[in-house]
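User: Um, any thoughts?
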Amino acid sequence: MVITGLALQNLRSHISFTLKFTSKTTIIVGDNAIGKTSIIEALSLLSTGNSFRAGRVEEMINFEADLARVKGIINYESEGSLAEKDEIEIIITRSEVNGKKTQYRLFSVNGVKRRKKDAIRKFYTVVFRPEDMRLIEGSPSRRRIFLDTLLSMIHPEYEVTFKSYEQTLRRRNKLLLQVREREQPKTSLQYWNINLSRYGEILQKYRKDFVASFTGVEFPVNFEIEYDPSIISDKKINQYLDREIAAGHTLVGPHKDDIIVFLTQKGRRLRLDTFGSRGQQRLGVLWLKFCEIEYLATIAGNKKTLLLLDDILSELDDESKVLALSVLKNYQSVVTTTDESLITEIQKHSEDSIVVRL
């Protein structure tokens, strides 16, 4: 077991909520808008320190409260050894508590205040949501988020570099506009050019290695993936500089990257986003999630990975359901659904499960 307990206070619709995880698979059943996704969000928050659906983390706080608390009991027990546990707590604020300015997120481990980097990554999560179904057919930004979310969760260097790249990009874009309007000299870009190239090359190295790991993932459908980077380097920046000044924004770099999924069928290699059927595209999304799980397993091992399947079974056909549920036997999982009839089907694929009704 990765996580054995969860407590929420003033988190979205949950004024006070506790849940014990006593089985490998926890099936949470309830109507829409009752708070199932908020539980998934809270578990992901404990893993990453971030929300996967809030634009600003304070949006997670209940409207009538000043702060929210999320607390989890993380278990490091291994075969034949005594259990070791951590109690992780994240307090979310609106930047002020009792009239005093504070951070939006306050972290503690076993009652001791910690920095974010020392409180997260105690375990890892793979989240599968209905929104993911548009991963292949949607915009490149969706696929970049797919890359960035996992790599930031696993690799501290990636997370730090990604934030630095984003800050550099915003500053450089502002300067490009000023240079275009002759408010700043062209030389003012030099420092930001160097940093953009340096950070961008690190991000693209991680992304390239991540995508390369997909090759060995077993799946009943023959999918392949190509990383389509907008290569960044000092030479490329100099090559595009005049065009970027004219456009007023940066034209090359990781913020323009994409990944392309292909399906090989009857000897033909087809782009899934262009030529795949809706069913094939959804299988492609499922394959990407399998690749994400396998990548985590090679780094952290199965025991530290928590699968979070948030009401996705209703989005899948029968073949995809069986594939999605086949991974439950290998990982601790939390599955949410509005459909009582799916409980039996989920239980068929899990050797140890419990049903929680909201």
About this structure: Residues 133-298 form a domain with the Glutathione S-transferase Yfyf (Class Pi); Chain A, domain 2 fold (CATH 1.20.1050.90). The mean pLDDT is 93. The CA atoms of residues 313 and 342 lie 8 Å apart.
